[in-house]
Design goal:
The chain is of the alpha/beta class and 294 residues long. The chain is built from ten helices and ten strands.
Length: 294
């Protein structure tokens, strides 16, 4: 099996916001034929459950990138929740735990998990509520615990945030937790790399970081967001993609999805991205990885 087997590529800009439908969810796709990326259901306001339903129907050789963290830090402290007896030993067990605790939260929400007395101490929440376990003794910064993949992102010039952080415009905690509920509810029908091995055929879901796509398109991490057609199309040309025919306003969610779909098409055939130096079997099964992080 070689990564060249993929014939279609979908990028999903995700949202962990409250409610059913979200302006911050955008899906774009492209294929090996080399045309411009296109939005899936342009103008539609997606729900997380609709995205789950779409992923559950995939059967072709499609690589799906989701802009969220597929797990929590484990390696730094030897556990997702150090000091908690009987904590989950791997990513799939973590997904199951989150989904179980949040069973009554609608729309794949995750409020019950971050409010749970066993888990709240590990998160930084609004109102200056920083749990006593938010930081790890091994952390060399104040942004909270990092996975090994996030350390790799930082080494590439990005500014990642901890999945335990729920505060600020750059927080990724809620989106990641809601995404983990989705991954659990997929039930293994679509493999999730690298938690699952890369299969020889069929669909695959992986974690992406849209900033990495923007950086390969010639933008800096600080200027990764694009909100006009000229910037979007310039980035696409840097990724060997035709421009999109776009009129009217453009938000960064749709731009992120379009650029990252084009980037996935080019990046998926690079063997080194499937075998990053920092990825070990233990990390794969516990923390996962961000596709494209070197």
């Amino acid at each position: 099996m070689t990564p060249e087997r993929f014939t279609r590529f979908i990028a999903i800009d995700w949202s962990g916001a409250a409610g059913e439908r979200h302006r911050g969810i955008a899906l774009a796709e492209t294929d090996v034929a080399g045309g411009a990326p296109r939005l899936i259901r342009p103008g539609h306001r997606w729900s997380r459950l609709e995205v789950l339903g779409l992923l559950g129907t995939l059967e072709d050789d499609v690589l799906v990138g989701m802009d969220l963290g597929i797990s929590l830090p484990f390696v730094d402290c030897g556990a997702f929740f150090p000091g908690l007896e009987g904590g989950p030993p791997d990513a799939r067990s973590l997904w199951a735990l989150i989904d179980e605790v949040c069973a009554n939260d609608p729309h794949l929400g995750a409020n019950s998990f971050v409010d749970h007395p066993d888990f709240a101490p590990y998160f930084r929440r609004h109102g200056g509520r920083e749990g006593g376990h938010f930081r790890c003794d091994n952390a060399a910064h104040g942004r909270g615990r990092f996975r090994v993949a996030e350390q790799a992102q930082a080494a590439m010039g990005c500014k990642p945030y901890s999945n335990f952080n729920l505060v600020g415009a750059a927080q990724v905690g809620k989106s990641s937790l809601t995404g983990m509920r989705l991954l659990h509810q997929l039930g293994g029908t679509v493999p999730v790399w690298p938690v699952d091995p890369l299969p020889a055929a069929g669909p695959v879901v992986t974690e992406i970081y849209t900033t990495l796509a923007a950086m390969e398109a010639g933008r800096s991490a600080a200027r990764a967001k694009m909100r006009d057609a000229a910037s979007l199309n310039h980035a696409l040309t840097q990724l060997d993609s035709p421009p999109v025919d776009w009129n009217g306003p453009l938000d960064d969610h749709r731009a992120d999805a379009l650029v990252t779909a084009a980037w996935l098409r080019r990046a998926a055939s690079r063997p080194e991205l499937w075998q990053p130096a920092g990825l070990t079997p233990e990390i794969a099964h516990t923390e996962g990885w961000t596709f494209g992080a070197a």
